[in-house]
Structures are given as C-alpha cells and as structure tokens.
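User:
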Amino acid sequence: LIAKLADTNKEIDRVNEIWKDRCNLLQAKHTESVSSVTPQLQYAQKENEESEQLKIKIAELESKLKGSSEIALRMEAACSDGNKLIQHWQKEVCNKSQDFENAEKKVKT
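Assistant: Predicted structure:
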C-alpha cells in the first residue's frame, strides 16, 4: 500500500509538473500576445485621437466657411444695393442732363 501511495504521489508530482509547464507556456504565450498586440493597440488609439482632432479641425473649418459664406452673401447684397444706388444716380444725372439741355434750348430760343 505504501509503495502504491508512493507511486501515486510520483504520478501526482509528474502531472503537476506537466500542468506547471503548460501554465508557464500559456503565460509566456499570453505575454507574447499582449506584447505584440500592445503596439497595434497604441497605434489604433493614436489614429483614433488624430481622427478626433481632424474631426474637430474639420468642424472649425466648416464653421469658418459658413461664416465666410455669410460674409460673401452680405457683400453680394451690399454690391447689389450699391449697383442700385449707382443706377439711381445715373438716372438722376441723365434727368438733370436732359433738364439742362431743355433749359439750354429755351435760353437759345
């Protein structure tokens, strides 16, 4: 019985060593996997941060563009008003010229 227990203990020790080796191997593979994935994860995080910064920059530029478009529309409206004013004064000058010519004709006659 003692010999059988000794054999069983040896078998238990042998199985424990196998499991210990397997656990060490799994731990090494896990560590290797983590170390190979970590740079990729860091790169992805960096890309994501840059993407977020680009989104913010795009939003800022779109806002500026919208502001520029609004300014352009106001400038266009001001130019249109300016053109209307120029046309008004051209008519006034034309009318005054006509009045002047008519007055000049009356003076001559």
